[in-house]
Amino acid sequence: MNAPVVDVSIEDQVRSVRTGSTTATELVSRARTAIDAQEPVLQAWVQMSSTTAEDVATIDADRRDLPLRGISVGVKDLIDVAGMPTRAGSPVTSAAAAVADAPCVERLRSLGAVVQGKTVTTEFGYFRPGPTRNPHAPEHTPGGSSSGSAAAVGAGTVPLALGTQTAGSLTRPASYCGTAGLVLAHGSTEMAGIVGLSDSLDSLGLLTRTVADLRYVHDAFLGSAAAVQSGLPECAFVWGGSYLGYLDPPMIALLGRLPSVLAGLGLHSEMLDWDDHVQTLAEDHATIMAFEAARTRAREFERQRDDLSPQIRDLLQQGQTISVSDHTAALIRRDRSRELLGEILDGSSLIVGPAATGPAPKGLSATGSPILSRPWQLLGLPVVIVPGARTTAGLPLGIQLVGLPGREDDLFEVGERLEAILRESPPLDE
């Protein structure tokens, strides 16, 4: 892969436009050139937008202090962009162009961002891999389903991309592609104009190069008042227990470094052994996702099942066998676990754990396991993925920080400091 074009912060890029040292037109043109250069190998994009130089020139002419002026963004192809089809990674969807932007896209445009195009997704945000390759090792998976968005940011072609998550669709690609990521708390943003799979689980997410960029975009996108401003939280619970058996050696080694790293940040840390709850949460997540997916995508299954991938077809078939009572019971257990975890975190703590089982697996026929993000996605909690760690082969490893809704600033504060340490730490043996 070529060297990344995006090597300065989003805030600094916007400042350079505001001060006149560059223009939005130049930033957008630079990003498009980088995309064109890397796309033959990366294959992160489904379709490029028809944005013209004249369109971008209107941003340069706008005198308002727009916080994302001239920032290029990739939009996962589950999210509507006016004038472009939303194919959701599936042959059964309509090729008709969306008539309006999804609210999240509209919001980014209002802040001065420029949509470069639609990025690759797995089919309906599930497991069927797309053509996208990992920007750090093209023979390895970029993860799924926000694979195109993570790869585009990880390659340094755009500084920002939109993704979504139902199980591990943003957490895992961020970890594999070496980007920062934010899974927004469930229900915190409008999901209109987004092809869904499970109403109880679907969440919007952001991908950027660093946690500092993530924080900057979050505060612009939602407003800094959306988060409770604070210093460092009181305690970090390091997720432990039998799930460690899923981890590859470099991720185990990275977790072994965390207690001393957290202590260096001034954080008291404790082990969180939540084995019984985590296993139940993972099972309940699978139940809820299959049940709701079977109903959300019932039309496609009834009319075009032979054209669906085996992965999504099997999920929908499984969902049809789940009873309403089993679905309801899973939701009740979710609510109880959410209350229990709220008591454990007590508004002033967070959870630290691996974002994936290890570095991106070799091969493009699968996207890796979402096992480590299922529990937190079921609970609808905000998650920040922290980049910076690497294996000796140069493959990224991500750490996820999990907190309570409204405490996102805690995650950003710890995440920025943790990222700085991870980037300076020696690589981990594979």
TrEMBL record:
Reaction catalysis annotation: a monocarboxylic acid amide + H2O = a monocarboxylate + NH4(+)
Database matches in Gene3D superfamilies: Amidase signature (AS) domain
InterPro entries: Amidase, Amidase_dom, AS_sf
Domain Amidase: 26-226
MF terms in GO: amidase activity
Annotated segments matching region Disordered: 125-150
Protein EC: 3.5.1.4
Family to which this protein belongs: Belongs to the amidase family.
Protein name: amidase
Organism: Rhodococcus rhodochrous
